[in-house]
Amino acid sequence: MTVNEAKQALAELQRKMAAYDHAMSLIYYDGTTSAPKGTAANRGVALSVLSEEEYKLCTGKETVELLEFLDANKEELDDKEKRIVYLLLKDIRNMAKIPMDEYVAYEELLVEADDVWHTAKETSDFALFEPILQKIFDTNLRFAGYIDPEKDPYDLWLNEYEEGLNKEFCDKFFNTLKERLVPLIKKVGEMPQVDTSCLKGYFLASDQEKLAHWLMRTMAMDLDHIGLATTEHPFTTSFGSHNDVRITTHYYEENVSFSMYSVIHEGGHALYDSGSADEFAYTALDGGISMGIHESQSRFYENILGRSRAFCNCVLPVMKALFPQMGATTEEEFFKAINVVEPSLIRTEADEVTYCLHVMIRYEIEKRVMAGELAVHDIPAEWNRLYKEYLGIDVPDDKHGCLQDSHWSGGSIGYFPSYALGSAYGAQFLRKMKEDLDVDALMAKGDFAPINAWLREKIWQYGCLYTPAEILDRVLGEPFDPQVYLDYLEEKCKAVYGI
Amino acid sequence: MTVNEAKQALAELQRKMAAYDHAMSLIYYDGTTSAPKGTAANRGVALSVLSEEEYKLCTGKETVELLEFLDANKEELDDKEKRIVYLLLKDIRNMAKIPMDEYVAYEELLVEADDVWHTAKETSDFALFEPILQKIFDTNLRFAGYIDPEKDPYDLWLNEYEEGLNKEFCDKFFNTLKERLVPLIKKVGEMPQVDTSCLKGYFLASDQEKLAHWLMRTMAMDLDHIGLATTEHPFTTSFGSHNDVRITTHYYEENVSFSMYSVIHEGGHALYDSGSADEFAYTALDGGISMGIHESQSRFYENILGRSRAFCNCVLPVMKALFPQMGATTEEEFFKAINVVEPSLIRTEADEVTYCLHVMIRYEIEKRVMAGELAVHDIPAEWNRLYKEYLGIDVPDDKHGCLQDSHWSGGSIGYFPSYALGSAYGAQFLRKMKEDLDVDALMAKGDFAPINAWLREKIWQYGCLYTPAEILDRVLGEPFDPQVYLDYLEEKCKAVYGI
After folding, report:
1. Smallest Cβ distance to B45: which of A18, A38, A49?
2. CA distance B43 to chain A (A)
3. Scanning every residue of chain B, which has its alpha carbon at the shortest distance from the alpha carbon of A47?
4. What secondary structure letter does DSSP report for B279?
5. Among the partner residues A36, A241, A244, nearest to B223 by beta-carbon distance
6. What mean pLDDT, rounded, does chain A reach?
7. How does pLDDT run across A146-196, given as a tens digit for each residue?
8. Which of B27, B36, B239 shows the shortest C-beta gap to A224?
9. What residue ranges in B225-333 does DSSP mark as E strands?
10. Which burial class, exposed, middle or buried, applies to A100 when counting CB atoms under 10 A from its CB (0-12, 13-18, 19+)?
11. A199: distance to nearest CA of chain B, Å?
12. Low pLDDT (below 70) residues in chain B
């Protein structure tokens, strides 16, 4: 085989991987958007076959030999090809260490878990979910042992979601946040309550859907390649390449802000995913590099832009046209209402200031379960204790407690810290962006295009070409500093509460 | 390999085929239900890879040897296993005769064709669709030559959709229909017009959706395994097995009957598909045996049951509750309105009596294009000429003419006759069913369960175990006789027009 032949075979291999990814992501998406409720087992059969085929494709002798041949002939590859070979070899070596039957069994377990978790959440029945959650934690521990027996298992998974992340970094990062956030939240709690009545009332789902479409258009999303659907829990996915990205939301008719901000949040993910260079489609370089960088984009759009004082000028008239009951609301009232700081039960609905404490609780629990210091059985009690300790609130039931998130049923252990990390990256991106753009003036007009262009140029177009650390370095040209995020949050509290 | 090992390998092979089928059907379904409009090329990439993988799986040495080994050891197989081996070998031998690159290229062509056809139809631009339609006819001719160079190409495809069907049978069948239908339609045309005003007006899509769900429940469909979605053109599909079946409809707010009868029609397909014996899931025996038998079920529910005088008793009160403007409509008026006989442009909206003439026109055109007697370029003119000759109406544009159906863009040449054939089967099934059940009394109550049970026992449960001819023989115990259908249509005209 010549190097050129190997490059062609590499392109073919990646197209196949993309096709399996397309099929499996779509089967999952169908399950959450429109499948009849008795069909999970049927999807399980297809996913089990397809994940087995994918496993065989990825770990097969032909693939490993191809990648090792290219790796041995690195000097004939350009930077993009080198990165592809590196990323694929890393994944495939990890995958090959997991026995195929265990790999496939885990895929099947996750299909079942999604189903059981939905029921458990609906009925607030942790006992129903517990045996499956136990298996998920056990599998993550076992797989970590297969992949790198020398490494701490939780460190291994943290690093999977955000290259370079480990417990030591997280502990330090969260302590830094806690030091300034806890007194800030206390101070806010002593101020007069913010009036949030403009966000309450009845908001017809079909009108919220119109607002969602307006937001997507205003965010300058390419609606020929980004779609919107309805699910219980909002998420973003893509099918095979950055040419087909889907976001989802959920309309609560008594609550206009949930769907509104989930669309902006998922819209941020979708913009990042769909912003990869065209040549990256159907290669390992396509899409976002890490969950931390991903959340830095989604939470940037949701909070830094979407909850800015300036954006209120632009969005409020549109909302008034759709929801006449908001007719008398002023921009200032709306700004305060969408930025109210209040310890609450649900992470995805939490304000910017208390948000990181929600993440910290999940991090503490995962870390201790993975270290064998906390039993899965005891998660609910520990969850409730930590909500009392960090946020001062009582959790009424597991539906509003440890069953609220889909991450664990989806097998994602070690994902949560990237939400806090991404939020902190975002604040530093903003400071940098303001050197080039008048962000407030753009937001007041709802003109997202220059902001998208800035992020596309510095982040999106590179897909997975650079590591998260390299991306940060390219954008910032200075070290990551969580104090910038804390400054941003204090400034927000000042604007809303005058403290 | 022992026969028992081979049987296990056979089960595994069929699970894999089912998974590819699941993925590819879902990708197609996604394209019609919710994909953003610029994503067809992206789906094309995945479909091209998956169809190539499926092709390799089916025609690979391992598969062929397995099936031939089992075929050589037939005496150790039960009837079901024998039938599976027969069906798979037949398909695989056909497939293997088509070069893989041509097979995959055709799959890619169909993805493009679907996209181009939609645009062509929207803009009534046959010239846009013509080059692709030419390729589709050419490919069908070429593939027929690969599969059986001795056989007439159109006969070969007719036989694919309905085992045993050929041009000779179709010519005779359609002539039989024409002999009695043409004078019948003429006689009806001389009678006073039926008042259809109760079906006109404004019917909110969301209320039509409620009616659709009521119809699905009333038809005793298992809603845990049968779903409903919205598409431009109604269709039925299943994913991997009879455990997940989907129907689609389209709501026109100025026309209540389109969505109503498309739901009942597709519901008939879905009942048949989902009625296979449980043990047939993930095998070649799962689902319906042929398009003729399939249409015999869908059109049985749509017309014989759904447009019966008795069913009006049951459905009209529900419609009145949803659409108050129908408050004064009598059952007799409603019955006549849904059974009006009137030459019209659109096949899927045609009444029972003129319907077969629509089918006959498509049959004539396909037959002549496949025989080289009609150029693809001349289809619109010929279409319009035949509509004038058979139905006495002028076709205003190709959108309402030869671009109306999705079959050709989907690559289905030879499918149309099964609609007429299925309709005729259905009338003979009704005569037989009436020996066991008081169909009118059941319909007046909307009690579908005994009817479903009768059809499940005699037809659905067998999936693909028997040929269409064997199914007919088992149900009827007498030869197929299109005169029964013609008697049924005359009786309907008598009830509606008093002739």
Report:
1. A18
2. 8
3. B19
4. G
5. A36
6. 96
7. 999 999 999 999 999 999 999 999 999 999 999 999 999 999 999 999 999
8. B36
9. 226-230, 236-238, 245-249
10. middle
11. 26
12. none
Q: Which tokens hold the place of A147?
A: 């992949």
**B271 is written with which tokens?**
């009942």
A167-497: which CATH architecture?
Answer: Orthogonal Bundle (1.10)
| Secondary structure letter of residue A78 according to DSSP | -
For residue A62, give both structure tokens: 């032909």
Between CA A54 and CA A406 the distance in angstroms is 24
Alpha helices in A123-196 (DSSP H): 126-147, 153-161, 167-189
Residue at B214: amino acid letter? W
Q: Can you tell me the distance from the alpha carbon of B193 to that of B376, in angstroms, rounded to the nearest whole number?
A: 38
**Beta pairing, strands B245-249 & B226-230:** parallel
Q: Which residues does chain A have within 8 Å of residue B222's beta carbon, measured at their own beta carbons?
A: 38
Q: How far is CA B28 from CA A228, B39, B112, B235, B410, in A?
A: 18, 11, 12, 12, 11
Structural domain boundaries of chain A? Answer: 3-152, 167-497
Chain B interface mutation, best of A15, A30, A242, highest count of B Cβ atoms under 10 Å: A30
B12 interaction partners in chain A (CB closer than 8 Å): none
Give the chain A residue nearest B224 (alpha carbons).
A38
Nearest to A16 among B39, B49, B225 (CB): B49
> A-side interface with B, Cβ within 8 Å?
15-16, 18-19, 22-23, 26-27, 30, 33-39, 41-43, 45-46, 48-50, 53, 222-227, 229, 239-241, 243-244, 246, 282
Q: What class has domain B3-123?
A: mainly alpha
Q: Number of Cβ pairs closer than 8 Å across A and B?
A: 129
CB B294 within 8 A of CB B162: no
Of A81, A107, A162, A266, which residue is the catalytic one? Answer: A266
For residue A57, give the chain B residue with the closest CA. B53
Query: Could you give the CA distance from residue B278 to residue B272 in angstroms, rounded to a whole number?
Result: 13
* Chain segment B354-394, per-residue pLDDT in tens: 999 999 999 999 999 999 999 999 999 999 999 999 999 99
Q: Which two tokens stand for residue B172?
A: 């005779």
Q: What is the pLDDT of residues A55-74, one digit of tens each?
A: 999 999 999 999 999 999 99
Identity of residue A125: D
pLDDT value of position A108: 87
Structure token pair of residue A437:
């753009």
Which residue carries 């030591």 as its tokens?
A: A168
Which of B239, B278, B282 is the best substitution to test chain A (most A C-beta atoms within 10 A)? Answer: B239
CB neighbour class for A163 (10 Å; exposed up to 12, middle 13-18, buried from 19): middle
Best B204, B225, B244 member to test A by mutation, with max A CBs in 10 Å, is B244
- The 8-class DSSP code of residue B303 comes to I
CB A452 within 8 A of CB A409: no
Give the bridge partners for B245, in sequence order. Answer: B226, B238
Hey, what are B336's tokens? Answer: 């006549």
Active site residue A76: no
Classified as helix, coil or strand, B4 is helix
Task: Give the confidence band of A232 by pLDDT, cuts at 50, 70, 90.
Answer: confident
Residue B249, beta-bridge partner list = B230
Q: B361 to chain A nearest CA, in Å?
A: 37
Chain A residues with CB inside 8 Å of B244's CB?
A: 35-36, 39, 42-43
- Across the interface, whether the CB atoms of A26 and B26 are under 8 A apart is answered yes
- Whole-prediction pTM: 0.94
Antiparallel, parallel or unpaired: β B236-238 and B226-230: unpaired
Helix (H, G, I), strand (E, B) or coil at A479: coil
| B24: closest chain A residue by CA | A23
B345 phi/psi in degrees, rounded to 5: -90, -30
* Residue-wise pLDDT tens digits, A1-21: 899 999 999 999 999 999 999
- Closest-CA distance, B162 to chain A, in angstroms, reads 28
